[in-house]
């Protein structure tokens, strides 16, 4: 029986995520606190792993002692820069100090922007949680000697992970162009839209930013070879795609995704 095994939120886009037991759906269809903040340069261009591999060197954590959740009452980040001790910042009260430390690290001025309505998703047309299965992560990790399942999870950065299913089960959650696939996680209704187009980030070590040799070439070859026969192949103009983009109808606003919920 498919069930929700993991929920991962990324409070600051492109930095480390946090695993939580539940997450609230916003009116936009995004998950509350996911990609709520993002780093921008002086030209208001998003600073992420696609544009600057140095961002991989930052380590971020969000849970305070005795808490496993990032909440409005606990809006702090512990940030560790290479070769230094961890520094703690309150995301509202100490934002200027955080921006100054980030600017020093990158070597140019940056600011931290906030969007509590939708966050900063890559796909603003389909801002719902990205979906993948645990078995898919294990299968894809097996294509690359030396890469663990957890490292592949950190590279793919999906929001919700489904277990109790075979590899690439989530490819059932999209259909031909223009169609959507309805599914439920607990009592939350989703529309599956399309397989997510990957960028350069999965090709790099999530801690060091170093590229894995021929990652994209290996991935594309294996993804094509293992693509299930029942998949809507018209959605693959190329095979550097993994996980599923979603939308959530407005009726789902305020509902809670909960670990262990059945997927139907």
From TrEMBL:
GO terms for molecular function: catalytic activity; molybdenum ion binding; pyridoxal phosphate binding. It holds the Pfam family MOSC. Residues 95-264 form the MOSC domain. InterPro entries: MoCF_Sase_C, MOCOS_middle. Transmembrane segments: none annotated. It comes from the Bacteria. This is MOSC domain-containing protein. It comes from Komarekiella delphini-convector SJRDD-AB1. The lineage of its organism: Bacteria, Bacillati, Cyanobacteriota, Cyanophyceae, Nostocales.
């Amino acid at each position: 029986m498919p069930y929700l095994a993991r929920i991962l939120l990324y409070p600051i886009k492109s930095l480390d995520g946090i695993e939580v037991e539940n997450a609230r759906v916003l009116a936009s269809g995004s998950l509350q606190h996911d990609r709520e903040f993002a780093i921008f340069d002086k030209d208001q261009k998003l600073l992420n792993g696609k544009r600057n591999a140095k961002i991989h060197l930052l380590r971020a954590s969000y849970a305070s002692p005795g808490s496993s959740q990032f909440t409005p009452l606990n809006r702090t980040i512990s940030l560790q820069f290479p070769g230094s001790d961890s520094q703690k910042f309150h995301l509202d009260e100490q934002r200027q100090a955080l921006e100054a430390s980030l600017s020093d690290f990158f070597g140019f001025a940056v600011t931290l922007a906030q969007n509590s309505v939708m966050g900063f998703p890559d796909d603003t047309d389909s801002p719902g949680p990205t979906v993948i299965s645990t078995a898919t992560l294990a299968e894809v990790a097996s294509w690359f000697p030396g890469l663990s399942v957890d490292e592949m999870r950190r590279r793919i950065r999906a929001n919700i992970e489904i277990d109790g299913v075979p590899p690439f089960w989530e490819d059932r959650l999209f259909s031909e162009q223009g169609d959507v696939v309805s599914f439920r996680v607990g009592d939350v209704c989703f529309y599956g839209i399309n397989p997510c187009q990957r960028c350069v980030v999965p090709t790099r070590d999530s801690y060091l930013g170093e590229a894995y040799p021929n990652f994209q070439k290996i991935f594309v070859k294996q993804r094509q070879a293992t693509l299930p026969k029942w998949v809507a192949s018209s959605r693959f103009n190329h095979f550097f795609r993994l996980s599923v983009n979603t939308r959530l109808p407005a009726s789902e606003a305020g509902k809670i995704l909960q670990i262990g919920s059945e997927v139907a």
